[in-house]
Amino acid sequence: MPGFEVLYQAAALCLMYPDDDFRARLPLLREAAPQLREFADHAAVTPPMELAAHYVEVFEAGQEHSLYLSVWREAAPAPSEELYRAHGLETTGEEPPDFLPAVLEFAARTGTTELLVDHRDGLDQLRCGLTGFGTPYATVLDAVCATLPPAHTGS
């Protein structure tokens, strides 16, 4: 499913801790990925400390909204550093290769959605959890999931 590389890169940025670099990129992100405008607009008007505290509350306070694909216990294996290297990419070591922003960046840089498709069920679980929690981060997962084939409905 080519053509979504910019969206995946932008979504990866949205799902990282909202530091000053993120805030500086908001206008570009908003224009480059119209699917993420709702989130970008929210982030732009939310005070930095409040946005950072919300990120911690949503993604770091427990595993119910984990950005680590291995948490979702799917049949698909978690991405490995070897897979990244095989595509000419290196992981930074700061986060494991199954960290969703890293997987989104992988898709953006390689043009392949294989990892996202393999973990679609987990992405849907995360998306539903974020929607139920009432966080604007749900719109980021909505945009990513909209680019993928439907989730598996059973074995």
Q: Please tally the helical runs, counting DSSP H or I stretches of 4 or more residues.
A: 9
Q: Percent of residues in beta strands?
A: under 5%
Write down the overall mean pLDDT. Answer: 85
Q: How would you spell out the order of helices and strands? A: HHHHHHHHH
Organism: Streptomyces variegatus
InterPro entries: DMSO/NO3_reduct_chaperone, NO3_reductase_chaperone_NarJ, TorD-like_sf
Protein name: Nitrate reductase
Keywords: Nitrate assimilation
Characterization of the model:
- Pfam families: Nitrate_red_del.
- Helix content is 58%, strand content 0%.
- The chain has one domain (4-146).
- The mean pLDDT is 85.
- The protein contains 9 helices and no strands.
- By secondary structure, it is mainly α.
- α2 (20-32) packs antiparallel against α3 and α8 runs antiparallel to α9.
- The two termini are 24 Å apart.
In short:
This protein is 58% helix and 0% strand.
Please give the structural blueprint.
Elements: H1 5-14, H2 20-32, H3 37-45, H4 48-60, H5 81-86, H6 100-110, H7 114-118, H8 120-133, H9 137-145
Helix pairs in contact: 1-6, 1-9, 2-3, 8-9
Sum up the structure in keywords:
9 helices; 155 residues; mainly alpha
